[in-house]
Specification:
The chain is of the alpha+beta class. The protein contains seven helices and eight strands. Helix content is 24%, strand content 11%.
């Protein structure tokens, strides 16, 4: 099952189903007020509020030790000491062979907290796409987004946008027109940020080229 959601409103959005790749495509229920946190001002760029998860997920992890997984715990401790001296480090987790073997938090952070990592999330999305392809939820990176997104999004795309592929999004080469500090302001005023992003026009008289992160709705 593929899922898609957009935090453009602080009110909960009900789960619905729609067309797209596979017969069990779902648009997940979500509560942006909870996701964005009490400090959220419903802006495209948040002021980095910390989200605290009210439900612990420790039971869902397989826990092990560095030694049991063939790692040197002393080296991890030295790395942790170095990271602790950096002012913006929040956490250091090491996963080996599917098990969590090392876990440290710094500067008041905790295991049930999540902080805005900005563009570092691109590497996470890249890994998530790889998992989705491996599980058969997305055919491949050369698949067009029009063939896997719900039909309500496809109907707003222009012909050029319908040719954008998953690869284009991962490499930030969708080519959508974006004016920094202007386009995002326009998008945040709309009720559906995904729709607004998909309706962005192509650059005037230019071939598809690199687009900065905000215009790449991965």
């Amino acid at each position: 099952m593929s899922a898609i959601a957009s935090c453009s409103s602080p009110k909960p959005s009900p789960a619905t189903t729609d067309g797209g790749y596979g017969s069990d495509k779902a648009i997940a229920a979500f509560d942006c007020g909870m996701i964005q946190g009490p400090l959220s001002a419903n802006r495209f760029y948040e002021d980095n509020p910390t989200y605290t998860d009210p439900v612990g997920d420790s039971a869902s992890w397989t826990i092990s030790t560095p030694a049991a997984q063939g790692m040197d715990s002393s080296r991890l401790e030295r790395a942790s000491t170095t990271l602790a001296d950096l002012p913006y480090t929040r956490s250091f987790l090491v996963i080996r062979r599917g098990a969590l073997v090392f876990e440290r938090y710094y500067h008041g952070s905790a295991k049930n907290q999540s902080n805005n990592v900005h563009s570092a999330s691109k590497s996470i999305w890249g890994a998530a796409i790889g998992i989705a392809i491996d599980q058969g939820r997305i055919p491949g990176i050369d698949t067009t987004i029009a063939s896997i997104l719900p039909s309500r999004y496809v109907t707003v795309m222009n012909p050029q946008t319908r040719t954008i592929t998953v690869r284009d999004l991962l490499t930030m080469t969708s080519g959508s027109r974006w004016d920094e500090d202007e386009t995002e302001t326009q998008i945040q005023r709309t009720p559906d940020w995904i729709t607004a992003t998909l309706k962005l026009p192509e650059p005037r008289g230019q071939a598809r080229s690199s687009t900065t992160a905000p215009a790449t709705p991965t």
